[in-house]
Amino acid sequence: MDDFQSETDSDYTSYWRDWFISSRGNEYFCEIDEEYLTDRFNLTGLNTEVHYYQHALDLITDVFDLDCEDDMRETIEKSARHLYGLVHARYIVTTRGLAKMVDKYKKCDFGRCPRVLCDGQALLPMSLTDNPSFKSVKLYCARCEDIYNPKSSRHAAIDGAYFGTSFHNILFQVYPALVPEKSRTRYEPRVFGFRVHAAAALARWQDDERRRMRLRLKEAGDAQSDDGMAEMELDEELARTQQAGQATS
């Protein structure tokens, strides 16, 4: 809002989208075409989700001319940012929107995967839910197929609903050439250069599972009444697991 306070109202409203896109923390967003914003079909249902919807839309499309107090203007500005984000989630799955996001993806505007073995793979923004105000934006790596939190606190505060749960998958379906080769390299734990033996790792896993099983039985109230039988069943299950692990190795 510092930019807003340093400009006159007429200057500010004349380039709202440019101001929004260029603001720090909004690097993940692309600019929505005015034709898309002025087509009411693309905005269906958003009038019930955004306060002062019409004023917010007027501000985004540079036709806002309401003379109001600063508090009211601040409220409308907040609604405009929210409305732009909700429309953005719809726009980026269109042909034009995907093309703009691909350009940003190729330039690594969304960052690179922090996993060392992914060799700096470019990331894509996504969300764990399509409902606004529930989850912040996450970053998806197509090489290791995992998700990460943004490094910057400014980006971490962005609502995930402004990108949605489907965008990153749709992008790779439309642009299959951008799908990277899956990461086949896995970190192998070693001691003085020697790989940790699989049997030792299996034994540690069995001990952990035994402790978890005892805890679950205790919470269920069965540990004291039938502890011997539960221990026998647990040992049999772990033995079967060990045999299966040895067979696969």
List keywords for this structure.
49% helix, mainly alpha, 249 residues, three-stranded antiparallel beta sheet, 6% strand, disordered N terminus
Provide a descriptive summary of the structure in words:
The protein has 249 residues and is mainly α. It folds into 2 domains: 15-178, N-terminal domain of TfIIb, CATH 2.20.25.20; 187-217. Helices cover 49% and strands 6% of the residues. It has 11 helices and 5 strands, in the order αααααααβββααββαα. It has helices at 2-6, 9-13, 16-22, 34-38, 53-60, 70-91, 95-106, 153-156, 167-174, 198-220, 227-248, and strands spanning 123-126, 138-141, 146-148, 190-191, 194-195. The chain has a 3-stranded antiparallel beta sheet with strand order 1-2-3, with no helix packed on it. It has a two-stranded antiparallel ribbon with strand order 4-5. α10 (198-220) runs antiparallel to α11 (227-248). It starts with a helix and ends with a helix. The relative contact order is 0.09.
